[in-house]
Amino acid sequence: MDVNNDGFMSKAVVLAKKPLTLGRPPKSGGELASSHIHMTITCAQKASYVRAAVAEKKKLSEWVTENLDLAANLKIERRSNPST
After folding, report:
1. pTM strictly above 0.70
2. Domain definitions of the chain by residue range
């Protein structure tokens, strides 16, 4: 083991033990997300979204995306079939 005078491993040894990764790991399957939405919401709204995401054991971005997709598809479906 490569230990320096203070009794700690040298930075080179620590870095060499970690696998080199760049960015976040790729998502499994599906289309690569490359577009962004920036929006301003209240602290209460965000807290509500975070609580809902945590309850479903999901990341906030995953929860928001799934729920926006559901809402958009429902609106589109209702416009296509106004009698339901």
Report:
1. no
2. 57-84
